[in-house]
Amino acid sequence: MAAMTTARPKSGPSEGRPSVVQTFLSRHGGMMPTFAAVAILILLFIGGEIFLRGDFIKPLTISNLLINYAYLLVLAVGMTFVILTGGIDLSVGSVMAFTGMLGAKLLADGLPVGIAVPAMLLGGAAIGLFIGILVQYFGVQPFIASLAGLFLGRGLAFIVSLNSIKVEDPAVLWLQSTRIKVGDWVITPTGIIALITVAIAAFVLHLTRFGRTIYAIGGSEQSARLMGLKVGRTKIAAYVISGTCAGLAGLLLTAYSNAGYPRNGIGTELDAIAAVVIGGTLLTGGRGYVLGSMIGVFVYGTIKTIINFMGAEQAWMQIIVGSLLLLFIVVQRAIVARAEGRR
Amino acid sequence: MTAVYKHRLFWPIVSLITLIAINAIARPQFIKITMRDGELYGPLISILRESAPLMLVALGMTIVIATRGIDLSVGATMAVSGAVALTIIDGSGDPGNLGTVLTACVVALLVSLVLGAWNGFLVSVVGIQPIIATLVLMLAGRGVALLITGGFITTVNSEPFAFIASGYLVALPFAFLIGVVAIVVMSLVERRTALGVLTEAVGINPEASRLAGVRSRSIIWGAYMVSGVLAGVAGLIYASNIRAADANAAGVFIELYAILAVVLGGTSLNGGKFSIAGTVVGVLIIQTLESSILFLGVSSAQSPVFFGFVVALVVVVQSPRMREGLAALSGRMRSRGPGARNDDKVEVA
Question: Structurally, how many domains does chain B consist of?
Answer without folding.
Answer: 1
